[in-house]
Write a structure and sequence with these properties.
The chain is α/β, with parallel strands linked by helices. The chain is 32% helix and 22% strand.
Amino acid sequence: MEKQEFGLLGKNISYSFSKKYFEEKFKKLFLKNHSYNFFDIADIEHINSVIDNQNLVGMNVTIPYKQAIIPFLDELSKEAQQIGAVNCVSFQNGKKIGYNTDAFGFEKTLLINKKDHHKKALILGDGGAAKAVKYILDKHNIEHQTVSRKSEINFENLTEDLVKESLLIIQTTPVGTFPNVEDFVQFPFDAITDKHYVIDLIYNPSETAFLRHCAEKGATTLNGFYMLEQQAEKAWQIWKG
């Protein structure tokens, strides 16, 4: 059988859930002709060195290229088009097709602990992952506001009142990721209650300082591991058609 190559496109990606996940999958399924590599490029302009590879079947995309990759693709799935971010690319019949499986993974994560009173959300951060989160919140008719450095509500002016009435909090920034595990975004933690559901999309460490502070106030908390697993599974289904 001919070689089938997969990989992760990103910048400075020394650690990766995806590589380990797919290499274990290949082992379990005895797929000796499959390999998973890092495509670590300094600039999206170098993408052709990656996508010209004839053996490439599928690729995951991470920070900072989830939006930058779009002009280099031939087609986008409906979700990817609406979200405006791609985290999965399939190479089929000479076509490069972009998908967003983050949305699928986030939806699964959201529904684990979502209650009827989670009608209003705050999204911390405004990158590619936040776009997938917004898409799913809209799908479930959950009102949401963004808190980011550049938005109207930012980390300096976010009020306790707004946090008290937004019982769903989704942390989408990379702040607090290993190795900077003691870092967290500025946030009025005293406004968190046991009615809050707080999701941090970071998976390493398994409990970020942000989640720990929320858990101390009684909130239900969840990290990004399940989302990651689910989006990877969805990517595999897409690649294997």
